[in-house]
Task: inverse folding
């Protein structure tokens, strides 16, 4: 539909539906991206949580990995949550053998840094870029950002100082899942970047 920002959700594996539903409530025209032509049709992308090793393998098998890298280097806005943050990181610790990422965020992340699924937790985060109201963040076997390079900016950290949200240009990477705690502000930020870059 004319005037609606067209945003993709990488739909190879993970919690695709939750992101799609949230983006739709924000007025986006949402495309499930599994093929390069679907990627080419969108002006922004969400990489969901799930399992980064699987998203990596499938994106290469489906011929999407290089087109996504190209889109990132051309400035396409991308929001990566949890496994999606891993996919955006330039460097990954505790990766499996041969695991690759799309890259773009000048950070080092560590997979599964918060332990097992049963050790999932919620935290209230202060994210200055999003205003006063705390972010309710759900952590589910998420990565932690071990180091933030010069090109990237920290958006949020836990009370113990561990970095869990970063931004670099049009890329946002989160260790947690905003889409399951009803937190829409990161998706709004993505849509704002899409509207700026696509001129919608
Ligand atoms: N542990 C997963 C991985 O390494 C990420 C978990 C998640 O996305 N909820 O990809």
Result:
């Amino acid at each position: 539909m004319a005037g609606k920002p067209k945003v993709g959700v990488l739909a190879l594996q993970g919690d695709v539906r939750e992101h799609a539903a949230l983006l739709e409530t924000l007025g986006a025209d949402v495309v499930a991206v599994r093929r390069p032509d679907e990627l080419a049709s969108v002006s922004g992308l969400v990489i969901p949580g799930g399992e980064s090793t699987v998203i990596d393998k499938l994106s290469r098998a489906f011929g999407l990995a290089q087109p996504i890298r190209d889109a990132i280097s051309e400035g396409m806005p991308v929001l990566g949550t949890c496994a999606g943050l891993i996919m955006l990181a330039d460097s990954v610790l505790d990766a499996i053998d041969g695991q690759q990422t799309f890259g773009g965020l000048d950070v080092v992340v560590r997979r599964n840094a918060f332990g097992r699924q049963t050790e999932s937790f919620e935290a209230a985060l202060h994210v200055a870029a999003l205003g006063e109201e705390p972010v309710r963040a759900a952590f589910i076997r998420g990565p932690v950002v071990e180091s933030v390079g010069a090109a990237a900016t920290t958006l949020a950290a836990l009370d113990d100082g561990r970095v869990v949200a970063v931004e670099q240009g049009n890329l946002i990477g989160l260790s947690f899942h905003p889409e399951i705690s009803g937190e829409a502000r990161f998706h709004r930020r993505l849509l704002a970047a899409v509207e700026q870059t696509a001129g919608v």
Residues 49-52, 82-83, 86, 111-112, 140-142 surround glutamine (CB under 6 Å). DSSP finds six helices and twelve strands in the chain.
